[in-house]
Amino acid sequence: MSDLKKIAEAVFEGDYETVHDLTQQAIDGGVPAMEIVSNGLLAGMDIVAPKFKSGEMFIPEVMMSAKALAEGLKLVKPLLSTDESDGMATFLMATVKGDLHDIGKNLVVMIMESGGFNVVDLGIDVSPEQFVEGIKKHKPQIVGMCALLTTTMMAMKETIDAITEAGLRDSVKILVGGAPLYPEFAEKIGADGYCVDAVACKEMAAALVAKK
Ligand code: B12
Q1: Of the candidates 51, 156, 144, which has an alpha carbon nearest to the alpha carbon of residue 99?
Q2: Is ligand 1 within 6 A of the CB of residue 113?
Q3: Which of 64, 116, 146, 194 could pair covalently with 105 via S-S, beta carbons 3.0-4.6 A apart?
């Protein structure tokens, strides 16, 4: 088994100590950080997702996988970061109200930071009012919203409506993402874009900022 496959397997098993050791070994061995993220750490979550859906894995086990993933991400994060954030656009990001999923959000945050954006992370279960307050306080150029549940997708629309009602809609570009989303939904709720993953988010955000 390749070293990256071993990392994926250890994430799936929730074995955070092994994830830590193997990730460090891969870094020391010169494997590029993005490769460790995509083909090791996230590949592990790709094993978890269908097993959770089919009932072969339960919440405590998924939480252990999430913890193992976080352990690895902690090690690669400094390698992805740049020190170009001075003068860069601000990206405000959160998972919407009612939704506690944060793995994808954290990944987007990490990749955006690595792209030189100034990132403000408001966390999970963030209400429309908290988004509005966050925009007033941090004055971001881009706002990112994450939802993983079909039941919380509509909280994105409520949030965009609240931003519009507060008179702030023209001051920000809004990107949305998360596994159940699709481009037409983003358009329907009045977002400026949908991205399938964190790297696409960084590219679209950079393009939107350049256009402004
Ligand atoms: C891990 C997980 C959990 C963990 C979360 C741990 C954590 N700290 O986040 C736990 C166990 C707590 C959990 C709980 C629940 N979960 Co859950 N969970 C998952 C699982 C297996 C993986 C999600 C994940 O982290 N994926 C990996 C990340 C990297 O991918 P991602 O989030 O999609 O993010 C990427 C892109 O979407 C994009 N992106 C994400 N956000 C954004 C934002 C922007 C702006 C942009 C541009 C891009 C972008 O970039 C990211 C990186 O590339 C999914 C299965 C799945 N297929 O998604 C189910 C899933 C999302 N969960 C589900 C359910 C039902 C639940 C629970 C209701 C279960 C329960 N009975 O309690 C609760 C809900 C709790 C709540 N209120 O939020 C369902 C949702 C079904 C639906 N149709 O709504 C899924 C799909 C599983 C299934 N049944 O198939 N869950």
Answers
A1: 156
A2: no
A3: 146
If you take atom 57 of ligand 1, which residue's CA is the nearest one?
49
Query: What is the Cα–Cα distance from 86 to 117, expressed in whole angstroms?
Result: 9
Fold of 3-80: 1.10.1240
Q: Is 34 in the pocket of ligand 1 (CB under 6 A)?
A: no
CB atoms near residue 193 (< 10 Å): 20
Tell me if 94 CB under 6 Å of ligand 1. no
Does any ligand 1 atom lie closer than 6 A to the CB of residue 53?
yes
pLDDT tens per residue, the chain (212 residues)?
A: 789 999 999 999 999 999 999 999 999 999 999 899 989 998 998 899 889 889 999 988 988 998 999 999 999 988 876 544 456 799 999 999 999 999 999 989 988 887 788 899 999 999 999 999 999 999 999 999 999 999 999 999 999 999 999 999 999 999 999 999 999 999 999 999 999 988 899 899 999 988 76
Spans of all domains in the chain: 3-80, 90-211
- 3-80 against 90-211: fold identical: no
CATH numeric code, 90-211: 3.40.50.280
